[in-house]
Amino acid sequence: MDVVNQLVAQGQFTILKQPLGFIKALQWIFAIFAFSTCGSYSGMFKMSVECKNRSESDLAIEVEFEYPFRLHQVYFDAPTCKGERPERLFLVGDYSSSAEFFVTIGVFSFLYSMAALSVYCFMLEKYRENQKGPQIDFVVTAVFTFFWLVSSCAWAKGLSDVKTATDPDKVIPLITACDELENRCKEVHDPKVSGLNTSVAFGFINLILWAGNLWFVIKETGWLAAFGVTYAPSSQEKQPAPDSFAQGGDYAQQDPYAGSQGGYQPDYGQQSYTEGGEYSQGYEQQPTSYSNQN
Questions:
Q1: H or E segment at 133?
Q2: What is the mean pLDDT of the chain?
Q3: Is the distance from CB of 95 to CB of 164 less than 8 angstroms?
Q4: Which of 36, 41, 78 is closest to 56 using CA atoms?
Q5: How many helical (H) and strand (E) elements, i.e. helices and strands, does the chain have?
Q6: Cα–Cα dist 224/196, whole Å
Q7: pTM value?
Q8: pLDDT at residue 153 above 80?
Q9: CA 148, CA 154: separation in Å to the nearest integer?
Q10: What is the DSSP string of 156-178?
């Protein structure tokens, strides 16, 4: 526990608030959603075969299938309605390649995102030391972006085929007894594939996250500096206003009363003291006389 506490204390978890770390955390979470919703799936559908001889009918034929969707290995027993032993039938199709590829990309994305987050939090200075770390991170991110595109498209097509192969209306024609008009065959329960639909959605969300993260990783590589353009202002641009402070540090302030303005402008001279200690001013004040008018 002491080692863990030291690691947590030395960690730079503020990187998780930045796009580089935040998007990587989202990649880690959505990778779990992608491979778990696909890899843990199991479904089932039901059919009924009602023979002319009711004693030979089977009204609850259950067919179960699961990841990795090797449907050609999934079988079920259906009555023949001829007094014979039930026949064993197999579903059609093998869609394990696209499903396993999708889950594999999800698992490796999960592992790489977790490793990258550990480096961001505990070895960020070493990661940015000589730009080799960001460059490797960018190449791996680009590779995973491509793989998410391919695997998501392949699994979307594979899921469409799985839905078709597990549709009871498509499976009923495989039953021999259903070819006879006197026998009635129908579906009882369709398989629930909402989880598989969600896995495809998570696949394309991962594609968007990994593609968007390319921009924030390439900013760490220093490769953008080779394409940088230095901004030089044009000579015709308006020059900035001069500062109020002179180069010598003197503060220049314009006298609001200076200039040719009208109105009262008193003339103040220099004040001085005479030898006798009398105080004199440089301006004279005329006495004001008041006369009483009758």
A1: helix 132-165
A2: 79
A3: no
A4: 78
A5: 7, 7
A6: 40
A7: 0.70
A8: yes
A9: 10
A10: HHHHHHHHHHT-HHHHGGG-GGG
